[in-house]
Design brief:
Layout lengths: L10 E5 L3 H4 L10 H8 L3 E5 L8 H14 L2 E5 L11 H20 L4 E4 L11 H21 L6 E5 L10 H7 L6 E6 H7 L7 H15 L1 H5 L2 E4 L2 E4 L2 E5 L12 H10 L4 E4 L5 H13 L2
Parallel strand pairs: 1-2, 1-10, 2-3, 3-4, 4-5, 5-6, 6-7, 7-10
Antiparallel strand pairs: 8-9
Length: 292
């Protein structure tokens, strides 16, 4: 599988583009992003289908051609509408469709990774565990549908979440990733820091998270895992909004994670989700890791 390929170091990139792209002469269209990223020294790009898959097949194929030419690690975030803990069968069926359509489109765009939010706790359920169980059952069905539709090497990156009502702490994600060989974790450490109320500060804490997940799902799935990283403002309920690295109030800071990746010899794809300075902050992370 793609996640078990040998790498010598992590890949660094951005989710969407910021003003530094549009401020570059001649840069106007999504299919130009791979060349632009190579020019500034980054090699990963995540496209958002969050509000729906709004890119046509022709444009997606143009992106795919550029991704191949410039060696970009391409991924896409699935629509936020996925609701695998829902009691409504139609919502669950729609969720399958969102993810299968995401698989189809990211393939045209030259990528293999789809990032997904699994769902929120169902208020009709008597416990969080009941929602976790239902999500696991629906992920099993998704794997079967991926087989049927021929998405045999598309990777589902199941994301850790930043609000307490959302299903997806790192231990839940680790269990979900055992369901199918194509399911790997997307560690959003900004989200994890929100649910820890800002206490994710030490390299040892990152190592504990990685070691738990390796014990549950195996090292292969963690070796080249997917990571979202940004500072995120949080409150009593968890995540509020993404912010930039120059914020001095909220975290997390990247340095402890970089130290852990180096120590454990992990080579993930690291996607910056800062609010307005994604390219700048991604380059900072790359330089920080390279200086170790």
């Amino acid at each position: 599988m793609e996640y078990s390929q040998k790498r010598t170091m992590p890949l660094f990139g951005i989710s969407g583009v910021d003003e530094s792209f549009y401020g570059t002469k001649g840069c106007k269209h999504t299919f130009q992003v791979p060349q632009w990223l190579q020019g500034i020294g980054l090699n990963a790009f995540e496209y958002s289908f969050g509000r729906g898959i709004n890119i046509g097949e022709e444009t997606a194929s143009k992106v795919g051609a550029q991704v191949t030419e410039y060696g970009t690690a391409m991924s896409a975030h699935a629509p936020y509408f996925v609701s695998y803990a829902s009691s409504d069968p139609q919502k669950v069926e729609n969720s399958h469709k969102y993810l299968l359509d995401s698989c189809r489109t990211i393939g045209l765009m030259g990528g293999k990774r789809v990032i997904v939010h699994c769902g929120v706790q169902n208020k009709e359920h008597s416990s969080r565990e009941q929602s976790v169980t239902q999500i696991a059952e629906n992920l099993q069905v998704l794997a079967q549908k991926m087989d049927q539709d021929g998405f045999l090497d598309t990777i589902m990156c199941l994301e850790t979440m930043g609000r307490y009502t959302q299903i997806g702490d790192y231990k839940e994600i680790a269990q979900f990733c055992t369901i199918d060989k194509r399911f790997i974790p997307c560690f959003d450490f900004g989200h994890i820091n929100c649910t820890m109320q800002g206490s994710l500060q030490k390299a040892e804490q990152y190592q504990e998270i990685f070691e738990h997940c390796i014990a549950v799902m195996g090292r292969d799935k963690v070796q080249n895992c997917h990571i979202h990283f940004s500072k995120i403002q949080f409150g009593a309920a968890g995540e509020i909004k993404h912010i930039d690295f120059d914020d001095t109030v909220f975290g997390p800071n990247f340095e402890p994670l970089a130290q852990t990746l180096k120590k454990m010899k992990l080579t993930p794809t690291i996607v910056c989700e800062s609010s307005t300075t994604r390219a700048k902050d991604a380059l900072y992370m790359q330089a920080c890791y390279g200086a170790l």
